[in-house]
Design goal:
This protein has about 550 residues and is of the alpha/beta class. The protein has 17 helices and 16 strands. It has helices at about 75, 130-135, 145-150, 155-160, 170-185, 200-210, 235-250, 260-265, 300-310, 340-355, 360-365, 370-380, 390-400, 430-435, 440-445, 465-485, 520-530; strands spanning about 5-10, 10-15, 15-20, 20-30, 50-55, 60, 85, 90-95, 105-110, 140, 190-200, 220-225, 315-320, 410-415, 505-510, 515. An eleven-stranded mixed β-sheet has the order 3-4-8-10-9-11-12-13-14-15-16, sandwiched between helices. Strands 1-2-5 form a three-stranded mixed β-sheet, with no helix packed on it. The radius of gyration is 23 Å and the shape is globular. The chain starts with a strand and ends in a 7-residue tail after the last helix.
Length: about 550
Amino acid sequence: MALNVVKTKYGMVQGVTEEGVLVFKGVPYAAPPIGELRWKPPVDPQPWEGVKVCDTYGPRPMQPSNGGLAFEPWASDFYYMGYTEYSEDCLYLNIATDAQSADEKRPVFMWFHGGGLSSGYSYEIEFNPTVLAKKGVIVVSVGQRLNVFGYLALPQLSAEQGGISGNYGLMDEVKALDWVRENIAAFGGDPDNITIGGQSGGTAKTGALARCPKATGKIKRVINQSSLNWTGSYPSMKEVEEEGVEYIKALGFSADVTLEELRAADAEVFNVRVGNPFDKKGPHTPGGMVYDGVWVPEQNAAVSFDQYAGHLDYLVGGNYGECVMSTGFILGGKPLENAAEFYHAAKDVLGEKIYNKYDFEKSYPVEDSQANFLSKRLAVEGLTGFGGNMKNRYFGAYRAQKFPDAKTYSYVFSHITPSVPDDKKNPLRDPDIMMAWHSSELWYMFDSLRVGKNGASNVPPVRPWTEYDVKLADIMSSYWANFMKNGDPNGDGLPYWPASDQNYGWIDLGDEIISHEGMEDEKDQMLYDYLMEQDVPKL
């Protein structure tokens, strides 16, 4: 292949061919953030002489536990081959390209993995980039600092760094974006056509990056899966600094410990999980961004969205099955066992006024056996702290009025991945409970599932993929690739995907692919009324 060796600003790199696509693994975009560079903004990597053979992925970022990596269904689906080594030295990109020359100007997709802001890594097997690359996209997956290494704020750090600290993981994102803008043309990419994408915790990364003043003008499109990341607020610098002090005290350091001592400490000292990140009453391992007025310009995310990201094209969606009805943030959640629990949960979320207005119990007669299914379906349609499909559709209508040139497309993924009989024995893998589980769409949008000569050689081996799974993966990866190319997922031979605009269009990606347009029924109106009581910008 003509692009086997590519010249970057810092030196020559050589890729390896996988599934007919050239992949450059472990390309450094910044110097290792170790020693004196721990908890500092990223700096340029050292140039190198000769050709760097990029045939090995960099380490996964330091993470104090395997977190979601150790639990089902992810453990058997995504991590069945074991875990890679971790290190503070994690600022690497992986680039997949099928371009034959450097002047092709292919669209670029920068992928930010999930796992909150605390775990996961950029080259997990479900992120296999080769099909998207064959469909004309340059795929770049990004490693960045996580948890305490990416988000510790302390008074000592703020005193050193102009009054702010934390957000180092976000700084890494901007550094990676700048590296791509500067170098991707040599790989056949178009630096003026960059889509940033993420799923779950990855949307916290893409959302903040899209709203970051230092990324203005460098991004064209955003793909956010399983969290729109439009609204919400960031904690103040003072609050996060105080939490940082409690954290280092829990590790045995004094509140006024010097930065020299902290930076000299072995990384494993910090590689432990302290407390619960959702419990603000006690010390916990840092794992969130902070309003600093520079990298995170506004405390209210929606305010900075209008200022910095309103003009960008968006593709957004979620999965039937990933959450239950709740006013808060609950991923998964305890399955509902009967109709009484279902109605109690619905009334708690909707409130008495909307619950009674739509005569909910009469409108939704449910048998005990259907309670969990309908709860999860209504959750992803809009009755959840995730926001849900109605929020995504409304987001499109809001943007059609305020940013008429911006395009928005919304989806719900409802296809249930095929299972083996033993899955029925485990409630964390039982398809009747899990449904379209959180992250399951990744096998399809990347088209990373593989069918081997026998089931044991499938990727992953626990999924007995069918002809329809292969077909759906081809369709979805084509939608995603088309959106990256021109902001519209539609294309020849694909079922029509209506835009989310004044017509509130969306698509159901399930056992059938069904297009929806308009406010279709009383349920849509109920979901809309509920959304209007939430903290969203109003038309």
